[in-house]
Amino acid sequence: MPELSQFDDDERALIVHTPGVVLKGAVVSDGSTNALVFLKEVTAGAKVFKQAQRHENAFVKSVALALKQRGPDADADLPVDDAAMTEALKLAGEVADLLHRKADPADAAAYAAWLLHLATEVAKAVKTREGGLFSRKVAVTENEQMFLDDLERALQR
Description:
Layout: H1 9-28, H2 35-52, H3 58-70, H4 83-102, H5 105-123, E1 128-129, E2 137-138, H6 142-155
Antiparallel strand pairs: 1-2
Helix pairs in contact: 1-2, 1-4, 1-5, 2-5, 4-5, 4-6, 5-6
């Protein structure tokens, strides 16, 4: 089981920074600019971060604890456009490559699964009517599902 300390500073920064970027990508993936929707999605992400502090995988737990120690001001900028999704997918691919090279396969898989779980919980945080007023509500919109699929592919590198 690798400890975060066995990675160099740039690698550690990538590992710890990526979950926040994935959160931002998931938040903007629905295309909504509604403040209440944003709040619900960020709250769902915060719950996933908090749960990870007790994760069964020690590596994921160490990343979550590093995020907690880093504090909320480290990534204070709010996602405002689709660039957040692009950045999330890019970093997810980079961190997946890094962990596949340097981490235990079980830790790499647990970290990837955690990132995907984070994005999925954010996507499911608000039920949305796709197609207009008389359509049924869906837990995950088509755009959110496309982001989740792209994220899963990026994490499988």
